[in-house]
């Protein structure tokens, strides 16, 4: 789960932000090359996170 700021979650920003975050993580972690798994990302805004009252992972 990736929690984005509300500004980064705006509709006009969302695609570029999520692509950038996903690509950065994949380049650093290399999940397919290292473990043979495909990455999966779930994005949520800070406002959504508060509504769900789930603990943020660090």
What does this structure look like?
The chain is 53% helix and 10% strand. The protein is mainly α and 58 residues long. It has one domain. The protein has a two-stranded parallel ribbon with strand order 1-2. It is flat, with a radius of gyration of 13 Å. The mean pLDDT is 93.
Mean pLDDT, to the nearest integer, reads 93
Q: Please give the count of helices.
A: 3
Major pleated sheet:
2 strands, parallel
Structural class: mainly alpha
**What is the strand content?**
5-15%
Terminal residue distance: 10 Å
Task: Tell me the count of domains.
Answer: 1
Order of helices and strands: EHHEH
Radius of gyration: 13 Å
Shape: flat
Low-confidence runs? none
Number of strands: 2
Q: What helical percentage do the residues reach?
A: 40-55%
Question: Strand arrangement, largest sheet?
Answer: 1-2
What is the gist of this entry?
With 58 residues, the protein is mainly alpha-helical. It contains 3 helices and 2 strands; from the N terminus they run βααβα.
Secondary-structure blueprint:
Elements: E1 2-4, H1 11-29, H2 31-35, E2 43-45, H3 46-52
Parallel strand pairs: 1-2
Features:
single chain, 58 residues, mainly alpha, two-stranded parallel sheet, 3 helices, 2 strands, 53% helix, 10% strand, flat
């Amino acid at each position: 789960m990736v929690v984005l700021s509300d500004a980064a979650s705006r509709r006009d920003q969302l695609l570029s932000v999520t692509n950038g975050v996903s690509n950065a993580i994949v380049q650093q972690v290399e999940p397919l090359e290292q473990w043979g798994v495909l990455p999966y990302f779930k994005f949520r805004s800070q406002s959504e996170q508060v509504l769900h009252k789930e603990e943020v992972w660090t």
